[in-house]
């Protein structure tokens, strides 16, 4: 066994060890020869400026051969061990944490695709780890990166939508704990407790035009509706449920009579607010209520967007009720939602749309004219590199 350094290895030293571990045998042999030549030229001396400079050249060469052009030396050199086939313990430059994450701990494209595929098909984080052999922290880090990339892609791509019939709704979930179970010292903390996902769907193309993760109040409704307006290219008909916050939000976003708007107010059996248990409330009827414009009565419906709510609960494990897979952090929740809608719009073949196209596979994005093909998970993963290039 090679001798361990007397100095406890920190994260940067471990990263440096992994850099050397990536050397091929021939490169390791070359490094060993260089080190042996250095020690021989020093005549066995233990110190000296010349020896230090020579060793510095050797360790820079080792890192360069490991293929890490972004690695930077630490201000203070530290010792670490090299692979056993090198057979010598020489000082190596340290790696910064950013360089380690960016260059040394980067998943292969195939592994990224496997992880994302597992996530979009409704698997939990730990199940994804078991299926792909990937560490939990790595899966969460990839979820955050691809979630951000998908959110930015959606923001710049889903624009100028010529929707005729829109349906909007919000779906409940929670982070850390349900609102009634939040500990006293965490009450009022942003991102803890009940959390809602707002969705606006095109009833014809089934495209999720916009979405928002936040609270269920008039302020969030206004932000949601204003974003919706910014993505439309024509005057649509809009249907929402009976949440009062929509009334002010729609008028602020579209202007009075700027949209053909109606509410579908559902009626439930007595006691549905206090005696629900684990069963859904019984809907006893629905009232179509005019709000503004000239909405067509037969098109006043929220059926499609409510079906999308079911898709969300089935395709995102953190939305599934009565499990311990709920979100622990609001950021991860939002990233999962962004990934879901990118996959839903561009990758997931829609049966109704495909049937209407006489068997030609169709996604909501294809029906809306945003793309001319069915995307794959590999295309979503490729957004990571595009996002990196854009940020630089």
Primary descriptors:
392 residues; alpha/beta; Nucleotidyltransferase, domain 5; two-stranded antiparallel sheet; 14 helices; globular
Describe it for me?
The chain has 392 residues and is an alpha/beta fold. The chain has helices spanning 11-21, 25-41, 49-65, 97-104, 109-120, 125-132, 136-157, 218-230, 245-254, 303-315, 330-346, 351-356, 364-367, 377-391, and strands at residues 78-79, 91-92, 165-175, 193-202, 208-214, 237-240, 260-268, 283-292. The chain has two domains: 11-104, no CATH class; 137-391, Nucleotidyltransferase, domain 5 (2-Layer Sandwich), CATH 3.30.420.10. Helices cover 44% and strands 14% of the residues. Helix 5 (109-120) packs antiparallel against helix 6 (125-132) and helix 8 runs parallel beside helix 9 (245-254). The chain is globular, with a radius of gyration of 28 Å.
Helix proportion of residues, in percent? 40-55%
Distance separating the two termini: 43 Å
Structural class: alpha/beta
| CATH level-3 fold name of the largest domain | Nucleotidyltransferase, domain 5
User: How many domains comprise the coordinates?
Assistant: 2
List strands and helices in order, with pairings.
Blueprint (H helix, E strand, L loop, with lengths): L10 H11 L3 H17 L7 H17 L12 E2 L11 E2 L4 H8 L4 H12 L4 H8 L3 H22 L7 E11 L17 E10 L5 E7 L3 H13 L6 E4 L4 H10 L5 E9 L14 E10 L10 H13 L14 H17 L4 H6 L7 H4 L9 H15 L1
Parallel strand pairs: 3-6, 6-7
Antiparallel strand pairs: 1-2, 3-4, 4-5, 7-8
């Amino acid at each position: 066994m090679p001798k361990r350094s007397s100095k406890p290895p920190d994260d940067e030293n471990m990263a440096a060890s992994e850099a050397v571990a990536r050397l091929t045998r021939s490169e390791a042999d070359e490094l060993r020869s260089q080190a042996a030549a250095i020690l021989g030229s020093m005549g066995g001396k233990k110190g000296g400026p010349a020896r230090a400079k020579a060793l510095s050249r050797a360790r820079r060469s080792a890192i360069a051969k490991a293929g890490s052009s972004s690695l930077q030396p630490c201000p203070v050199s530290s010792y670490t061990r090299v692979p056993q086939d090198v057979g010598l313990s020489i000082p190596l430059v340290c790696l910064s944490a950013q360089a380690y994450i960016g260059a040394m701990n980067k998943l292969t494209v195939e592994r990224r695709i496997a992880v994302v595929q597992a996530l979009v098909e409704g698997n939990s984080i730990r199940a994804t780890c078991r299926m792909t052999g990937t560490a939990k922290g790595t899966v969460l880090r990839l979820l955050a990166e691809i979630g951000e990339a998908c959110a930015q892609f959606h923001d710049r791509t889903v624009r100028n939508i010529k929707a005729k019939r829109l349906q909007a709704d919000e779906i409940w979930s929670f982070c850390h704990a349900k609102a009634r179970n939040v500990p006293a010292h965490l009450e009022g903390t942003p991102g803890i407790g009940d959390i809602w996902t707002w969705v606006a769907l095109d009833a014809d193309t089934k495209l999720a035009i916009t979405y928002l993760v936040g609270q269920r109040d008039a302020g969030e409704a206004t932000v949601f509706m204003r974003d919706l307006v910014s993505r439309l290219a024509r005057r649509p008909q809009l249907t929402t449920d009976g949440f009062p916050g929509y009334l002010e939000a729609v008028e602020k976003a579209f202007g009075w009579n700027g949209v053909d708007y109606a509410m579908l107010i559902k009626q439930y059996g007595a006691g549905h607010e206090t005696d629900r248990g684990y069963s859904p409330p019984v809907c006893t009827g629905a009232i179509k209520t005019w709000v503004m414009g000239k909405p067509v009565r037969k098109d006043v419906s929220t059926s499609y967007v409510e079906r999308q709510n079911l898709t969300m609960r089935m395709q995102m494990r953190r939305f599934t009720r009565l499990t311990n897979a709920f979100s622990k952090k609001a950021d991860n929740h939002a990233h999962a939602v962004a990934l879901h809608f990118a996959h839903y719009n561009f990758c997931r073949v829609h049966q109704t749309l495909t049937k209407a196209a006489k068997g030609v596979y169709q996604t909501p994005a294809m029906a809306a004219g945003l793309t001319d093909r069915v995307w794959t998970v590999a295309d979503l993963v490729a957004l990571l590199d595009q996002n990196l290039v854009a940020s630089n």
